[in-house]
Design goal:
Layout: H1 3-23, H2 28-49, H3 54-85
Length: 99
Amino acid sequence: MNCCGEVVLYVVMWVLVICCILLQRHSLLGVLLGFEALGLVLFCLFISVFGIMQKPVSLSLVFLCLEVCVMSVCLALMIKLVKASGSDYVGVCSLGGSS
């Protein structure tokens, strides 16, 4: 597949992942999985677009490492939230003080 076709494919995948994230309004785990899929699509797009040059490929690997770190922190925060509230549903969570 040529580079232009791959870019179009990854843009379509990116739009589908954004739609998936927007449809996961209730479960925090679904939103986090959608963000992980978004990061993987962006990583594949980086590799596809900048595959010929060497420096941007290393930049995409740094992006992938940072993505893994961010997702591990998000997962830890979600576990703390589930322990505090008993559910991963977004409607159960309240960020403000007690009323």
